[in-house]
Amino acid sequence: LDALRSNFRAVKERAGSLPLCAVVKADSYGHGAVQCARVFAQEGASWLAVSCLAEALQLRRSGQTLPILILGHVQPAYAAALLQNDITVACYSLAQARALSEAAVAAGDRVHIHLKADTGMGRIGFALRTDFDAAIREMLEACALPGLEMTGLFQHFSVADDTAEENIAYTAEQHRLFVQACSALTAAGHEP
Predict the structure, then answer these.
(1) What stretch of H or E contains 15?
(2) How many Cα neighbours within 13 Å face the side chain of 172?
(3) What is the SS3 assignment for 112-144?
(4) In sequence order, what are the residues at sequence separation of 6 or more whose Cβ sits closer than 8 angstroms to the Cβ of residue 28?
(5) For helices 53-61 and 33-42, what crossing angle results, to 10°?
(6) pTM (2 decimals)?
(7) What is the pLDDT of residues 5-58, one digit of tens each?
(8) How many CA atoms does the CB half-sphere of 45 hold within 13 Å?
């Protein structure tokens, strides 16, 4: 935990005043999600991220009060649990947004969502790389659905840790698409 604390401080120093989200999915990659989340909270993390609802609930049961983002899929039927535990969920498609909207309305409140942009990872997300305009239209439609409140936008850099020239260029293109999406959403009145 001392090494984790030191590493987080180094990242925080490089980030300056930017808020940081600490990813503690998969039991904090085998290091203990609850213990690591405590260190991140003490060191000034603004958010925690996990892969599924069970991981988010584990953190809430441990007393963690930081905002939590679920990076993966959550069945819309669990909208009430998201609301009761103040958990934000990834929204990665219009179909998923519609189902989550319906469940949130039935639960009587608004589920917080972070839009997931696919800029080239190829897993889940609104497909900015393949059809940017259609992806933005779908994101905006998701933002307008009842029962949902868009609170952010995120992506996954797929090769940012690789220093090969082609991968540096790929990462730069992913970043460009992400910034362009932020601008498009903001211009439409939905600042992420």
Answers:
(1) helix 2-15
(2) 7
(3) EEEEEEECCCCCCCEECCCCHHHHHHHHHHHHH
(4) 35, 36, 37
(5) 60
(6) 0.94
(7) 999 999 999 999 999 999 999 999 999 999 999 999 999 999 999 999 999 999
(8) 24
CA distance 108 to 106: 5
Q: What residues pair up with 67 in beta bridges, in sequence order?
A: none
Amino acid, res. 34: V
Residues near 134 by Cβ (< 8 Å), separated by ≥ 6? 127
Cα 75 to chain centroid, rounded: 16
Strands (E), 17-104: 21-23, 47-50, 68-70, 87-91
Taking the C-alpha atoms of residue 15 and residue 101, their distance in angstroms, rounded to an integer, is: 34
Q: Determine the Cα–Cα distance for residues 156 and 88; give it in Å rounded to an integer.
A: 17
Name the nearest CA neighbour of 48 among 72, 20, 73, 26. Answer: 20
Rounded-to-integer distance, Cα 125 and Cα 176, Å: 16
| Helix and strand numbers, DSSP H then E, in the chain | 8, 7
Taking residue 56's Cβ as centre, other Cβ atoms within 10 Å add up to: 28
